[in-house]
């Protein structure tokens, strides 16, 4: 049996301005790399949380994304809301926009005026309380 090479994934973080952090994603955001993104964001928002007001995820070099990659992006949104940081999804390739549209998450993740309550980390109830 032939072993396939691991998909390429890399991320870089840089402070663009005193209150703005940019995270650039390269390669495949998938089941093997999604934890790396979430852990990096937890670490950076924990270290710089008081100073960061905007987080820009730059997808310019994103090659592929799967459902676990989408889950990591949703978790990034949750982490940002908990830290009162505005999340920007920059330079989205068409395949990411297509996934966000099909799953109904594009407006949720990109609308700065979205009328939804921040979700506390560890909260298992949907925003607005339990559904009947």
TrEMBL record:
Family annotation (Gene3D superfamilies): STAS domain
Signal sequence, start to end: none
Listed name of the protein: STAS domain-containing protein
Residue ranges of domain STAS in the record: 23-109
Source organism superkingdom: Bacteria
InterPro entries (UniProt xref): MlaB-like_STAS (IPR058548), STAS_dom (IPR002645), STAS_dom_sf (IPR036513)
Lineage, uppermost ranks: Bacteria, Bacillati, Actinomycetota, Actinomycetes, Kitasatosporales
One family name in Pfam for this protein: STAS_2
């Amino acid at each position: 049996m032939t072993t396939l090479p691991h998909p390429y994934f890399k991320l870089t973080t840089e402070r663009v301005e005193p209150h703005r952090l940019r995270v650039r994603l390269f390669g495949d955001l998938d089941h093997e790399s999604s934890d790396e993104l979430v852990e990096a964001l937890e670490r950076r928002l924990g270290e710089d949380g008081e100073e960061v007001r905007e987080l820009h995820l730059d997808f310019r070099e994103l090659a592929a994304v799967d459902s676990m990659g989408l889950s990591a992006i949703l978790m990034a949104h949750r982490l940002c809301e908990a830290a009162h940081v505005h999340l920007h999804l920059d330079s989205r390739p068409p395949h990411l926009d297509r996934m966000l549209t099909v799953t109904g998450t594009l407006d949720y993740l990109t609308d700065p005026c979205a009328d939804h309550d921040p979700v506390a980390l560890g909260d298992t109830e949907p925003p607005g309380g339990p559904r009947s």
